[in-house]
Amino acid sequence: MADGTQILRRNQPGSRAKDFCRWPDEPFEEMDSTLAVQQFIQQTIRRDPANLEAILKMPEAQDEGVWKYEHLRQFCMELNGLAVRLQSECKPETCTQMTATEQWIFLCAAHKTPKECPAIDYTRHTLDGAACLLNSNKYFPSRVSIKESSVAKLGSVCRRVYRIFSHAYFHHRAIFDAFEKETHLCKRFTYFVTKYSIISKEILILPKLDDETPITQTVGESEA
């Protein structure tokens, strides 16, 4: 308020968790904050997480590098939810390697020299590494404009993140399906990396989630 009085929004006793973020939508052009892009993306997801076109439709005059960066930040934040669920059955004793199909073994880049890691450790290392990079003042000092050389670093993060989806799909299908039904996160991520040509289609080994038709299958061992 003009007199400096602070207004506090108080939740009423008995409020449900899903009601906590039910505030009116705000047009993007009226969002006056360095976090406007993040706010807009989260607002659109909250409105309908299944509407991929709306979520990934970039506002006019928006910097594309910042748009990609903020979406990747959002993917990583939401993917922590899948990582937590995987811990119930993705154990180092049972999932000793980060694999997708029997044709793919992924090496973990968190070590001095990339090497094999239990799948749950690979997942943690990948999300921790992504958080460190995306919060780096060296590469991403601003949330308003980003150098092209920094934007180029997003591709390697996307490839590693996609492997988490792949492992969950092929080895923990019930957990994957329950999480995907709620969030549509893998479908959104696949659409995102395809739309902006961040990952080559040869790497997209998951079936299309709407019709279960494999996109591609490739034999090999992949480093980070």
Account of the 3D structure:
This protein has 224 residues and is mostly helical. It has a single domain, classed as MOB kinase activator (Butyryl-CoA Dehydrogenase, subunit A, domain 3, Up-down Bundle), CATH 1.20.140.30. Helix content is 44%, strand content 4%. It has helices at residues 36-47, 52-55, 64-86, 119-134, 148-151, 154-171, 173-183, 185-195, and strands at residues 98-99, 104-106, 220-222. It has a three-stranded mixed sheet. β1 and β2 (104-106) form a beta hairpin. The longest helix has 23 residues, at 64-86. The chain is globular and about 50 Å long. The model is unreliable at 1-11 and 211-222 (pLDDT under 50). This is Mps one binder kinase activator-like 4. InterPro entries: MOB_kinase_act_fam, MOB_kinase_act_sf.
Number of strands: 3
Poorly predicted runs of 5 or more residues: 1-11, 211-222
CATH class: Mainly Alpha
Q: Write the element-wise H/E pattern from the N-terminal end onward.
A: HHHEEHHHHHE
Indicate the radius of gyration in whole angstroms. Answer: 19 Å
Helix/strand class: mainly alpha
Helix content: 40-55%
Q: What is the annotated CATH architecture?
A: Up-down Bundle
Strand order of the largest sheet: 1-2-3
Major sheet description? 3 strands, mixed
| Overall average residue pLDDT | 84
Total domain count: 1
Query: What is the tally of helical segments?
Result: 8
Q: What percent of residues are in strands?
A: under 5%
CATH topology: Butyryl-CoA Dehydrogenase, subunit A, domain 3
CATH superfamily: MOB kinase activator
Spatial shape: globular
Distance between the termini: 51 Å
